[in-house]
Amino acid sequence: MRKFNAMEKQTISSFASGLSAAILLIALISLVFFIVLKGSAYFWPSQVFKVTTYDKASNEVSVFVPSSVDIDEFTAALTNKLNEQFASSKQPIPLIAVEKVDAIYQINLHSGAIQHGNFQQINTPNSEIYQLAELNDVVASVAVFQRELREIQTTYLTVLHRKIAQLNQSGVSEKAPARLKELEQFTYWQQKADALSKKIAAYRLIFIDASGQPIDILVKDINHLFQPNMMSLFDKVSYSGNKIIEFISESPKQASTSGGVFPALFGTVLMVLLMAVIVAPFGAMAAIYLHEYAPNNMTTSVIRICVSNMAGVPSVVYGVFGLGFFVYTLGGSIDSLFYSDSLPSPTFGSPGLFWAALTMALLTLPVVIVSTEEGLRRVPEGLRAGSYALGATKMETIWKTVLPVASPGIMTGVILAIARAAGEVAPLILVGAVKFAPSLPVDGEFPFLHLERQFMHLGVFIYDGAFHNQTNTQGSSMMFASCMLLLLIVFILNLFAIIVRNRLRDRYVRI
Predict the structure, then answer these.
(1) 306 exposed, middle or buried (CB, 10 Å; 0-12, 13-18, 19+)?
(2) 99: which strand partners?
(3) For 388, which of 197, 299, 326, 483 is 20 to 30 Å away at the CA?
């Protein structure tokens, strides 16, 4: 058997390493490309086809179906699907025709719902019938009425309702002049608001669906109206840009199958930043103690082994611990001490943003400790000796000499912690992340940052959406778009941390 010499062994080793790296790189690029391809379908307008079939009574039925592929590919896919569905029943395939109708309109509603139909007419309160070319004037009129309605509701009705509630709490008689005056004003403005609401509801667009039935849509409910089969490339790019802006600035709609992901985006970034602020100092202090102060004995070795093993504990275990210790024990104690008036309704004794950040900080703490201690080991002993020789104390040496040089290692641990915390799902479901949160953790109400509130997280949003919208094409494409956004967030946060780490390295290491 032929033996390889040292040069051949080195060549084989280099080739194997390069091949492994190439395979991993190709797999990573393929994964990102697949996510981008599937996620971009959420922003790009789809063509709409008219599909005519038979129902169970052998009557012709037509529906409008959006698709991201051309008519030939769509027809072939639909035919194959019907062949599979009716192969065992020995019934004829109920497909009659698939056609592309250029004049079809797509109506995106503010609620997130989508309708398709052929335009018929615009109805107004005066029973006048307008054409689509006059839609902008109609929309402008409705917008004026809506502004007037909002002004009445906020300026008058809300204030009067509050005054009447105060009179009720004060026990003022129902026939008191002050109460009668407020009620009279409230009735007057309520009647004006009702009249405006009726006028707004009278502005309607009438469309005809594929089966010939009218579709009645309020003008105020329309978010976007366009003809998908007649859009130019510029129109499609403009539509995609607007859809991206809506995606990152609006809340989810239609059971998380449309709309945007702003609450989940905001909650993810806020939780990760809060976690980084908590874990970085505690991880650094623990590493400094283990490396600089703790004696090199069996106890210290056992602690290091335990810290390393903590990194391998399943994340759901941390979630259960966070729920039991942080939420129920610490949160319950805080409620008993400071929020006893609100009990039994919990304030901090229920899952929330702060407990989620603490749980993720505990989960990523071993990573930060190990990375920081590795950075401390790389600090030359000569720097410590020189600092001591100049009369510095051990604390001064650590603070002004060792930590600056080891700061790139600390930032490496923070980078790894951010990457892991941004993508975790299981522990967050237990300690604060929810499918939908009615309000953000940050608002204009004192104390502005509400750590006790539940929040939305992109990882939880993706998990829940993928689990419940497996057969919904639009919902699944939205989940892939959310994956794209999560990858982008992790990339930006890591890029920022890497830039800070490199600047620290250039400043303190390459001296």
Answers:
(1) exposed
(2) 50
(3) 299
Q: Count Cβ atoms within 10 A of the Cβ of residue 230 and give its class: 0-12 exposed, 13-18 middle, 19 or more buried.
A: exposed
List the chain domain ranges: 105-226, 262-508
Taking alpha carbons only, the member of 376, 370, 354 closest to residue 433 is 354
Look at residue 405 and tell me whether its pLDDT is greater than 80.
yes
Compute the C-alpha angle 277/282/285, nearest 5°: 130
Give the pLDDT confidence of 323-362 residue by residue, as tens digits: 989 888 888 888 888 887 777 778 888 888 899 999 999 9
Give the pLDDT score at 511.
46
Query: Per DSSP, what are the bridge partners of residue 173?
Result: none
pLDDT digits (tens, 9 = 90+) for 7-58: 766 777 777 888 888 888 888 888 888 888 888 888 888 888 888 877 666 6
For residues 189-207, average pLDDT: 87
Q: What is the CATH number of domain 262-508?
A: 1.10.3720.10
Give every CB contact of residue 209 below 8 A, 6+ residues apart in sequence. Answer: 63, 64, 115, 116, 117, 215
Residue-wise burial string across 134-153, b where 16 or more C-beta atoms lie within 10 A, e elsewhere: ebeebbebbeebeeebeebe
Task: Kindly report the number of other CB atoms within 10 A of residue 392's CB atom.
Answer: 16
Q: How remote is the C-alpha of 324 from its chain's centroid? A: 27
d(CA 360, CA 492): 19
CB of 378 closer than 8 Å to CB of 505: no
Q: Each residue of 77-121: pLDDT tens digit?
A: 777 776 666 665 556 556 667 888 888 888 888 888 888 888 888
Looking up tokens 């919990």, which residue turns up? 346
pLDDT tens column, 208-230: 888 888 888 888 888 888 888 88
Chain CA centroid to CA 163, Å = 39
Average pLDDT over residues 449-468: 83
CA dist., res. 325 & res. 351, Å (int)? 11
Residue 424 backbone phi and psi in degrees, to 5: -75, 150
If you ran DSSP here, which 8-state letter would residue 340 be given? G
Find the DSSP H helices in 118-261: 135-151, 158-170, 177-201, 233-249
**Six token digits for residue 370:** 């190990």
- Top pLDDT among 60 and 279 is at 279
- On the 0-12 / 13-18 / 19+ scale of CB atoms within 10 A, 465 is buried
